[in-house]
């Protein structure tokens, strides 16, 4: 049969009872609106840790940087999220207790030190294999580097707490609990700048511990990845006392340290140690001065094995094979050594190349699991060949956009996984699969926009405003990044003037400074005009072929004069400015949707400027934002679709260790600004804000920890939770035609709330009414297809919209079930279908399947569990046209009319369609007649079966006519149903055979009726002879 799917076009204004007192919106009211996740999973996302149950190798956990924790019990064929409703989405480490595998610990806040790293809220513990979690404290630690569990005593836990990445704080160091996490003792504390990144326990003596302290700090303008606080420590008494290990290690300050102990002989310990000269802010030092060290005496002395330690601030972590001392793996760039670390091989991979964690089976070194920025790989030949886990939707979106195709496409840029486009839905029963997604560009992806006038042209972006124009038909790509007349050498410059001994580029300077997430937009007023920001604002009126500078809008501060952790950087600073090669730069730009030349510009050094003359002059209005600290990061502008001069800005200051919410609005072209933070929960950190295109008082705010909406212009905010996990919402857009809310999350891909008329119309006044029925979008009768082959179960399916018309209504309070009905009528007033609404308070969505009432059901046959429901088919699909939904609450009626349309791929004459619809009713009439005729004989047959089970002896020869008539009715029922399915699958005239079948089945009803009459007259009386009254067989 046809399945049906809703498209959105609001038709009528809302009808509701008017009362005076307003009621405030709550999060719980919105739980009836369910969102769908469309993926993608084809590129997966960043895996930061793995925990394998060694007694059941098919069961393991995968911890993600911003997508929670996932669990498999079938060796990666399928995964389920098990950590998604907690107070954070970011994970640093996960540990499973091997003696009691149901005990699982999660340390939140990833241990990488990226410019995009998220933070956590302490450590969590599960006693049931991840089904439920309890926060066990250390909430202000923000980033957990490692959790180590005592092998036999489940109460003893060690936690390496790194502390805040963006500023000083007290809760950091190495912590120990001896009561299962109820209380904590701090074993190591250096200072407010230094935490502990790694801890390891001797596998044969649990009192021997190694811990790596780590001093680091990230700021908006740079990164210092080391200092005097970084060191290697050892305890032999379970952490009571410690000594620093230095024998054989280099002098000077260290950066990050990673530890691994050889399982078969714990005398052997390897560490990765960061130290070098002139870090190039990308992947390596110009001169490495440390690298991999080995000890053969439990750390008392060390031997330098090699300088291999790629991008240490990100994932400086070695692993020695549990069964082979000579085999050492190194992370960030997957590599291995077969000679105890003297030399390394970095093989070409079929997986992602930026690696975070590796696990090696302690009983079979061939079995390896690797986690990287592109998901999980499993190998059974020691990493030569890999099985890629392709069903984890962990994509980390920075920006998201849509086009006007039908169905519309979703564009977006992902952390370290390029830029992609995929459909918001498909006409396939499987939904949206990995093959539906197409790669637009590489590197780290950001904003991607389809050209306003030609959707075959897409503007794609990679890091540092790597802007290009792509022809989707031919694949031709033209770089259009502004401000590079001398070409590019890549984003590796972190000094205005390079020091002695460092080669200067021979052909000129490096590429023009640009932010990691460089801003650009296509003008609302001219489809060929683009604005883009580096440290300057640029304008092009010819699709990026030429550019004009509108000026450097930053403070032009020399960041080399700015201190980090109280000191200025020099050529020995570990991981200097990793991820931030340029500062200061533009971070957000926008134009007024009504007034050409009205521009807004924001920077990473805290300037907010406006221009009323298309960039000829600029006005710094940063001081007009009351309560905003100096130097905050201007993240996103939104200009109003409703009113000229109205704009919004989402600002965050977490890069200065300030996690407050900063959201502002202007109504006078940026001259003055008012905070609309309202009653937002503390420390959510604003990422993006959008004004609804239909309701100017409806605002959507994406934060680091949840999505919020306001229905009163920012006075009050509520979190839209519903079925969504805890996630960072980096960007969002409302589709201008379909009225869908499209959300780009930095950890779980794209989520869509279909048809948001209810949100748009749920005003404070409506909330005060006893009930409301909202506008209903156009519903399309989509014929979904099944065009795939066998897939197995490691197969990702993004969700299509649920088919049918989406009917949303609101109840102020619960009503009795008898006092609420929801019905659909045609324009003549004829009842089409009665729906089943809930009677609970809140906002609810009911789906109508665009069919008439279901057909008659077959009998429900008794079984050992009582009675089970008989078979029932849905009714025929309705004709395209206008229908009316009628909600009745306590006698008060609310109506909304809406349109039902054909599948948009079809072009069928209305008379042909009407004739086809009428033919469906002919078949259903025949089908229901068959059901009516067969029911009585069917019940008689079931009665015979019961009597036989009770031991009653019945003559089989006498039974034969009853058995025969039942077989014939069952066959006629099956054939009639098949004819209905056949005719339903094709809108058009019947075939000759279908007409013949219909006529034949019609004649068979009359024939079987005569046979049935003979059974009633002859067979039933003979069967009933000798039976007790309660055993009698009857045919009504």
UniProtKB/TrEMBL annotation:
Q: Which InterPro entries match?
A: Sialidase_sf, Sortilin_N, WD40/YVTN_repeat-like_dom_sf, Xyloglucanase_GH74
Q: Which Pfam families match?
A: Sortilin-Vps10
Cleaved signal peptide residues: 1-22
A biological process term (GO) from this entry: xyloglucan metabolic process
The cross-references to SUPFAM superfamilies, in alphabetical order and at most eight, read: Sialidases
Asked whether the UniProt record includes Repeat among its keywords, one would answer: yes
Ranges where the Sortilin N-terminal domain occurs:
123-254
Task: Quote the Gene3D superfamilies the UniProt record gives.
Answer: 2.60.40.4070, YVTN repeat-like/Quinoprotein amine dehydrogenase
Taxonomically, which superkingdom? Answer: Bacteria
Q: Which UniProt keywords apply?
A: Receptor, Repeat, Signal
Record carries keyword Signal: yes
PANTHER family in the record = EXO-ALPHA-SIALIDASE (PTHR43739:SF5), XYLOGLUCANASE (EUROFUNG) (PTHR43739)
Recorded protein name is Sortilin, neurotensin receptor 3
């Amino acid at each position: 049969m046809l399945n049906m799917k809703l498209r959105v076009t609001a038709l009528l204004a809302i009808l509701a009872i008017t009362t005076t007192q307003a009621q405030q919106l709550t999060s719980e009211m919105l739980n009836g609106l369910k969102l769908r996740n469309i993926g993608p999973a084809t590129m997966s996302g960043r895996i930061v840790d793995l925990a394998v149950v060694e007694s059941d190798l098919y069961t393991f956990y995968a911890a993600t940087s911003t997508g929670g924790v996932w669990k498999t019990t079938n060796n990666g064929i399928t995964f389920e999220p098990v950590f998604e409703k907690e107070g954070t989405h970011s994970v640093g480490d996960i540990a499973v207790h091997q003696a009691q595998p149901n005990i699982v610990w999660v340390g939140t806040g990833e241990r990488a030190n990226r410019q995009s790293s998220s933070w956590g809220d302490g450590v969590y513990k599960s006693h049931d294999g991840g089904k439920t979690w309890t926060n066990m404290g250390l909430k202000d630690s923000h980033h957990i580097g490692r959790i180590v569990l005592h092998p036999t005593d489940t109460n003893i836990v060690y936690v390496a707490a790194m502390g805040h990445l963006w500023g000083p704080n007290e809760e950091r160091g190495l912590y120990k609990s001896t009561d299962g996490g109820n209380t904590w003792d701090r074993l190591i504390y250096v200072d407010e700048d230094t935490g502990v990144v790694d801890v390891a326990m001797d596998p044969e003596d649990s009192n021997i511990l190694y811990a790596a302290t780590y001093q680091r700090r990230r700021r908006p303008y740079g990164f210092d990845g080391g200092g005097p606080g970084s060191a290697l420590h050892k305890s032999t008494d379970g952490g009571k006392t410690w000594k620093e290990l230095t024998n054989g290690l280099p002098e000077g300050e260290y950066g990050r340290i990673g530890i691994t102990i050889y399982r078969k002989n714990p005398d052997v310990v390897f560490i990765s140690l960061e130290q070098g000269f002139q870090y190039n802010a990308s992947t390596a030092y110009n001169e490495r001065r440390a690298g991999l060290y080995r000890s053969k005496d439990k750390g008392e002395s060390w031997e330098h094995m090699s300088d291999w330690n790629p991008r240490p601030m990100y994932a400086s972590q070695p692993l020695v094979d549990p069964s082979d001392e000579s085999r050492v793996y190194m992370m960030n760039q997957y590599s291995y050594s077969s000679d105890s670390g003297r030399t390394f091989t970095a093989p070409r991979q079929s997986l992602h190349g930026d690696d975070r964690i590796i696990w090696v089976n302690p009983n079979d070194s061939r079995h390896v699991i690797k986690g990287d920025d592109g998901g999980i790989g499993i190998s059974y030949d020691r990493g030569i060949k890999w099985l890629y886990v392709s069903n984890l939707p962990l994509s980390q979106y920075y920006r998201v956009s849509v086009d006007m195709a039908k169905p519309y496409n979703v564009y977006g840029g992902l952390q370290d996984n390029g830029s992609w486009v995929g459909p918001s839905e498909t006409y396939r029963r499987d939904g949206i699969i990995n093959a539906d997604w197409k790669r637009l560009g590489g590197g780290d992806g950001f904003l991607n926009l389809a050209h306003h006038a030609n959707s075959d042209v897409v503007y794609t972006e990679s890091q540092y405003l790597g802007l290009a124009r792509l022809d989707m038909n031919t694949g031709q790509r033209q770089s259009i990044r502004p401000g590079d007349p001398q070409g590019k050498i890549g984003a590796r410059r972190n000094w205005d003037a390079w020091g002695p001994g460092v080669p200067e580029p021979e052909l000129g300077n490096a590429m023009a400074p640009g932010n990691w997430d460089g801003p650009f937009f296509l003008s609302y007023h001219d489809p060929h005009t683009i604005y883009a920001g580096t440290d300057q604002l640029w304008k092009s009126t010819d699709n990026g072929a030429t550019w004009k500078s509108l000026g450097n809008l930053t403070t032009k501060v020399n960041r080399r004069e700015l201190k980090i952790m109280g000191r200025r950087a020099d050529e020995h600073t570990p991981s200097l400015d990793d991820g931030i090669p340029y500062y200061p730069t533009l971070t957000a730009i926008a134009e007024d949707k009504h007034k050409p030349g009205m521009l807004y510009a924001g920077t990473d050094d805290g300037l907010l400027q406006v221009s009323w003359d298309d960039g000829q002059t600029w006005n710094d209005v940063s001081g007009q934002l009351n309560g905003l600290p100096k130097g905050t990061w201007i993240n996103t502008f939104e200009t109003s679709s409703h009113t000229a001069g109205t704009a919004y800005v989402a600002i965050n200051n977490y890069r200065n260790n300030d996690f407050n919410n900063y959201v502002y609005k202007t109504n006078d072209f940026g001259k003055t600004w008012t905070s609309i933070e309202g009653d937002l929960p503390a420390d959510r950190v604003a990422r993006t804000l959008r004004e609804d295109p239909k309701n100017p008082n409806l605002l959507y705010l994406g934060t680091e920890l949840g999505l919020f909406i306001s229905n009163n212009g920012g006075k009050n905010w509520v979190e839209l939770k519903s079925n969504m996990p805890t996630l960072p919402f980096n960007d969002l857009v409302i589709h201008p035609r379909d009225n869908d809310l499209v959300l780009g999350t930095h950890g779980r891909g794209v989520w869509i709330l279909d048809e948001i008329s209810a949100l748009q119309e749920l005003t404070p006044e409506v909330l005060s009414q006893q009930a409301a029925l909202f506008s209903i979008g156009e519903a399309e009768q989509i014929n979904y297809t099944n065009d795939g082959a066998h897939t197995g179960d490691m197969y990702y399916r993004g969700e299509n919209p649920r088919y049918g018309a989406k009917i949303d209504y609101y109840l102020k309070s619960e009503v009795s079930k008898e006092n609420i009905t929801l019905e659909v009528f045609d324009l003549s007033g004829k009842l089409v279908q009665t729906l089943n609404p809930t009677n609970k308070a809140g906002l609810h969505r009911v789906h109508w399947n665009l069919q008439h009432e279901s057909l008659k059901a077959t009998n429900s046959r008794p079984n050992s569990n009582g009675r089970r429901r008989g078979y029932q088919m849905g009714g025929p699909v309705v004709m395209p046209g206008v229908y009316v939904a009628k909600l009745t609450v306590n006698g008060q009626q609310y109506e909304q009319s809406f349109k039902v349309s054909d599948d948009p791929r079809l072009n069928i004459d209305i008379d042909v369609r009407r004739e086809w619809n009428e033919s469906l009713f002919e078949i259903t009439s025949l089908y229901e007649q068959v059901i009516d005729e067969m029911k009585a004989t069917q019940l008689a047959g079931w009665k015979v079966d019961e009597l036989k089970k009770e031991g009653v002896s019945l003559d089989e020869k006498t039974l034969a006519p009853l058995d025969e008539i039942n077989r014939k009715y069952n066959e006629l029922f099956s054939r009639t149903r098949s004819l209905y399915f056949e005719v339903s699958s094709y809108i058009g005239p019947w075939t000759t055979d279908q007409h013949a079948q219909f006529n034949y089945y019609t004649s068979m009803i009359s024939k079987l009726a005569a046979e049935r009459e003979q059974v009633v007259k002859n067979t039933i009386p003979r069967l009933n002879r000798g039976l007790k009254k309660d055993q009698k067989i009857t045919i009504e």
